[in-house]
């Protein structure tokens, strides 16, 4: 049986006819020059400005995306629980699921504190780092809070290879062992990069290990140059394709989200048509 989070994802996916996830990574001019929120949001009350920016992006993209993924590194040092609740309430009102991109990874009691506040804020799921080794414990604790848990498996940055593709377990890469743990312990899914060094074979392997019902979240499509065709061709049916900077900083995020939704859906359609041809 699918988990509660997977059920929410499947409902949103069907209603929106979309596997697009909007990455909420609102950068400010105070720490970089490009890819920043429009100046109208950088007010004296920066908390209110960032909140308005996130709410506006959700409203403009909700018809074309089934999920949002707020990045805690951009938001948690600025926004409080009240603002995060408003973001999640808006997402849920628009029929979207909300995943806090926190990459949590600590001992059990510390993780439990984070799960409590994530639930209080209204998130549906979180991203989790497996390198503390406690995937089973964290999955059980997250599920008790009705939170889905998506585990970092093979990340998009090229430096990840020296750790995540190292052969450690019976001469298998670490990322494959993580995928097995996701399956064994009932986690909700994996997170895999979509850029060049993550191959279709890597994606197919993870899909085979975690099973068809689990979700794979793919960051990196858009400005980072992720391979949408590879993601769709190897990722299976239960996927989320995350687009952040290329979408949220566009002059018209809604139009951009619609373009991505159409491109993704057309690529899915083309892929299935090719499969049918191969069967004949």
Residue fraction in strands? 15-25%
The radius of gyration over CA amounts to: 18 Å
Which runs of at least 5 residues are low in confidence (pLDDT < 50)? none
Number of helices: 12
**End-to-end distance, in Å?**
33 Å
Describe this entry's structure for a reader.
The chain is of the alpha/beta class. It contains 12 helices and 10 strands. Strands 1-2-3-4-5-8-9-10 form an 8-stranded parallel beta barrel, surrounded by 9 helices. A two-stranded antiparallel sheet has the order 6-7. α6 packs parallel to α8, α9 runs parallel beside α10 (228-235) and α10 crosses α12. The longest helix is centred in the last third of the chain and has 27 residues, at 253-279. It is globular and about 55 Å long. The two termini are 33 Å apart. The mean pLDDT is 91.
Q: What's the SSE blueprint?
A:
Elements: H1 4-16, E1 20-24, H2 46-61, E2 67-70, H3 72-75, H4 81-93, E3 97-104, H5 108-121, E4 125-128, H6 135-144, E5 148-154, H7 161-164, E6 167-169, E7 172-173, H8 174-185, E8 189-192, H9 200-210, E9 215-218, H10 228-235, E10 239-243, H11 245-248, H12 253-279
Parallel strand pairs: 1-2, 1-10, 2-3, 3-4, 4-5, 5-8, 8-9, 9-10
Antiparallel strand pairs: 6-7
Task: Spell out the key features of this protein.
10 strands, 280 residues, 16% strand, TIM Barrel, alpha/beta, eight-stranded parallel barrel, globular, two-stranded antiparallel ribbon
């Amino acid at each position: 049986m699918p988990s509660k989070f997977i059920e929410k994802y499947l409902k949103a996916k069907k209603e929106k006819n979309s596997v697009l996830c909007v990455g909420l990574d609102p950068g400010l001019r105070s720490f970089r020059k490009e890819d920043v929120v429009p100046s109208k949001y950088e007010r004296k009350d920066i908390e209110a400005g960032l909140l308005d920016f996130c709410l506006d992006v959700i409203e403009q993209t909700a018809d074309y995306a089934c999920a949002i993924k707020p990045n805690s590194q951009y938001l948690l040092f600025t926004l409080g629980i009240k603002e995060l609740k408003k973001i999640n309430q808006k997402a849920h009102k628009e029929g979207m699921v909300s995943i806090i991109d926190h990459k949590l990874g600590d001992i059990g009691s510390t993780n439990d504190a984070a799960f409590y506040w994530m639930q209080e804020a209204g998130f549906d799921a979180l991203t989790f780092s497996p390198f503390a080794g406690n995937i089973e414990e964290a999955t059980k604790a997250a599920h008790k809070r009705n939170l889905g848990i998506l585990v970092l498996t093979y990340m998009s940055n090229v430096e990840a290879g020296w750790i995540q593709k190292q052969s450690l377990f019976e001469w298998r890469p670490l990322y494959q062992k993580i995928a097995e743990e996701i399956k064994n312990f009932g986690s909700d899914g994996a997170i895999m990069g979509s850029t060049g060094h993550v191959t279709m074979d890597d994606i197919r392997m993870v899909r085979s290990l975690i099973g068809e019902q689990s979700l794979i979240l793919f960051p990196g499509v858009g400005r980072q140059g992720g391979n949408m065709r590879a993601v769709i061709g190897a990722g299976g049916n239960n996927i989320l394709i995350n687009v952040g900077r290329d979408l949220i900083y566009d002059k018209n995020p809604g139009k951009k989200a619609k373009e991505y939704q159409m491109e993704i859906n057309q690529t899915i359609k083309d892929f299935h048509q090719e499969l049918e041809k191969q069967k004949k």
